[in-house]
Design a protein that fits this description.
Number of helices: 14
Largest sheet: 2 strands, antiparallel
Oligomer: single chain
Shape: globular
Low-confidence stretches: 11-16
Structural class: mainly alpha
Number of domains: 3
Radius of gyration: 24 Å
Strand order of the largest sheet: 1-2
Strand content: 5-15%
Distance between the termini: 61 Å
Order of helices and strands: HEEHEHHEHHEHHEHHHHHEEH
Mean pLDDT: 88
Number of strands: 8
Length: about 290
């Protein structure tokens, strides 16, 4: 097969009688050979899944430089163009637009995903969230002290109908008391948010700003989210800009527009029909308000 032929030509380190090829400088040849072998006889559609690709690209950029990350994106796009029955699915907790945006600051002019559709994975529909919570309560044999449907509804609503947080809330109920009633759901939510060990990993919403945003953008995003978290109602752009100017001299109008645009893509915020901004998920807003004061 072509892949083994390519590997056989590579230099490397020999340990005993086993030769380990030097992969890093030849990764494009290996990647191309791998897909050549896949499609040599395969006529069916092939779907290639890559989870946490944005995080991988960020690691490549940090370790080997922006040019290497650009080359990887271009190589993946070239494979999709070459093989008509190849589909790629990229997933990650951070949008790939973050990495591409940082690469553009270093001269990257290509649009490596313009042949792909962007698909958002939303929370569950309310009925499905309630159903999940109900099944988890039953599966964990948690004693429900009043109406099971009401408790499941309260859990799903407190979690924003997000499966990840529904699981964590039910897990906390099981581990802490093993029983629950409707009035206790909000206490459980507060305990999850206030837990200094952060078992639900809320802090990632804050830390990824300083990791993936530029310094000025991250600072402005933190201040904007602080303001929005403290408001009980959505905030219009002029008011948000005015409030930010009381907090930081970096609150430039166009920069704020850019930052808000990225926060929308990263699922921190939503923009309502009247143009006002608010947190996308109430559970994240509640954590942000509690943690950031």
């Amino acid at each position: 097969m072509m892949l083994w032929g390519v590997i056989g030509t590579l230099g490397g380190t020999e340990i005993g009688h086993i030769k380990l090829p030097e992969v890093r400088p030849h990764w494009k040849s290996i990647l191309s050979a791998l897909f050549h072998d896949i499609f040599a006889e395969e006529t069916r559609q092939v779907i290639f899944f890559w989870d946490e690709l944005p995080l991988f690209l960020y690691s490549v950029k940090s370790a080997a430089g922006e040019q290497s990350a650009m080359e990887l994106l271009d190589a993946l796009r070239a494979l999709r163009q070459k093989y008509s029955n190849l589909r790629m699915v990229f997933t990650g907790s951070v949008g790939i637009h973050q990495v591409i945006g940082s690469l553009r600051k270093h001269g990257y002019a290509n649009d490596p995903t313009n042949d792909m559709a962007t698909v958002e994975v939303p929370p569950l529909a309310p009925n499905d969230g309630i159903r999940l919570a109900l099944l988890l309560l039953q599966g964990e044999r948690i004693k429900v002290l009043d109406d099971s449907e009401a408790v499941a509804k309260a859990i799903s609503e407190a979690a924003g109908h997000i499966p990840y947080y529904i699981h964590y809330m039910v897990s906390r109920i099981r581990n802490s008391r093993g029983e629950i009633q409707s009035e206790g759901v909000q206490k459980c939510l507060h305990e999850l948010i206030a837990d200094p060990n952060d078992p639900a990993h809320f802090f990632y919403y804050q830390s990824r700003l300083t990791t993936y945003y530029g310094a000025a953008e991250a600072g402005l995003a933190l201040h904007a989210l602080d303001i929005l978290a403290s408001h009980g109602e959505p905030v219009a752009f002029p008011k948000l800009l005015n409030l930010l100017r009381h907090k930081t001299a970096a609150a430039e109008e166009e920069l704020l527009r850019q930052v808000l645009g990225v926060l929308l893509k990263d699922h921190y915020l939503i923009r309502n029909e009247d143009g006002t901004y608010t947190f996308r998920y109430s559970i994240v807003q509640r954590w942000w308000a509690y943690t950031r004061g």
